[in-house]
Structures are given as C-alpha cells and as structure tokens.
Amino acid sequence: MKRILGILLLFVFASADAALIDRGSGFIYDDVLDITWTQDANINGSDTWTNQVAWAAGYSLTHSVYGTFDDWRLPTTTQPDPTCSGQTSHTIPQGWGVNCTGSEMGHLFNVDGISASSPDLFTNVQSNYYWSGTEFAIGTSGASAWWFHIDLGAQNASSKDLNYSAWAVLDGDVAAVPVPAAVWLFGSALGLLGWMRRKTA
Fold this sequence. Notes:
Elements: H1 2-12, E1 20-24, E2 27-30, E3 35-38, H2 49-58, E4 61-63, E5 67-69, E6 86-89, E7 92-98, H3 104-110, E8 129-136, E9 144-149, E10 154-159, E11 169-171, H4 179-200
Antiparallel strand pairs: 1-2, 2-3, 3-11, 4-5, 6-7, 7-10, 8-9, 9-10
Helix pairs in contact: 1-4
C-alpha cells in the first residue's frame, strides 16, 4: 500500500525537483524561477538595447498545444545582487562581475549550467554579450543597461548603443495545470488509494 501511495504521489508531483523542462515548440520552462525561455537563443541577432527591448515586447511564438504567447521580455537583472563578486560601483550597492545568481541569465549560467559550449536544451546560444531588460541608470542618465556574457558568466553595464544579442523570456509556464485540475488529480489519487485499501481489508 505504501508503495502504491508513493507511485501516486510521484505521478502527481513528477516535476518537483526539475529545473529546465522542454515544453516543446521552442519553449523551455525553468520551474525554479517560474519563467519560460525561447529555446532558440539567437532569434533576433545583435542590436542596440532599445531595439532588442522593442523586439522582445513585440515577439510572438505559437505552441502546437498551448496556443500563442506574445508577452515576452528581456531577462531581468536584480539589483543589488549580493551573490555577485562585485558589490559596489559609483558608491552604490549593486551586483556585478561573476557568480551572480540573482539575475535570470546569471541563474541560467551559474545554477542551470547553460553556456554556448554547454547549451543543453537550447539552440544557437551565442558566446557573446546578451542584453538584460534592466537599465543601469546610476550616473549615466539612463544611457546604459545591464548585460550578461553567457560564456564568461559575467554581468556588467554598457552603453545602450552597443549591439548585443537578446534572449526572450516570459513569466510563468505555458503548460501550467489550472489549480482545479491539479486538485482533481490529487483527489483522484487519494480516492483510488482509499478504494484499494477497502478492497484489501
């Protein structure tokens, strides 16, 4: 009976320990950050920060099962980020350098192990600078934005006029199971367990 219960619970919570999940049709879900990446990491090539932000906002991708999604954006860079090797710039606590896990791309590199030389589920990962959607406004009058180098594992800020790559991400999971369906699934598992217990009594 305990073995059956374990199997049922494993079925219900199968993805509890997963990190990156291929949802198909070009969607890769990170169940730790609860965000979805485009599988293709170089859809729009290199461009300025302003153009890449506009591209992501206007991008649309259709999943063969779950429909069309058009609420994409560039990855965020959390500031300050105490996990980074660099902690002060312009006398303001921040987070730059290496080992950053607070930013979404830093998490992708440092936690999930994704790089151009180790793309795993992704395609066209560039050994290059990728724009973050987060501006770096301290002492720059809004002229700079954060970037992440996916092979060096480093983040910093540069002029928005430079041409860097872009990787689109959206919040949540395209394959999210509605709460009522999840409750029904768990309730069915418990009901089956009760029925089997009565049958063996």
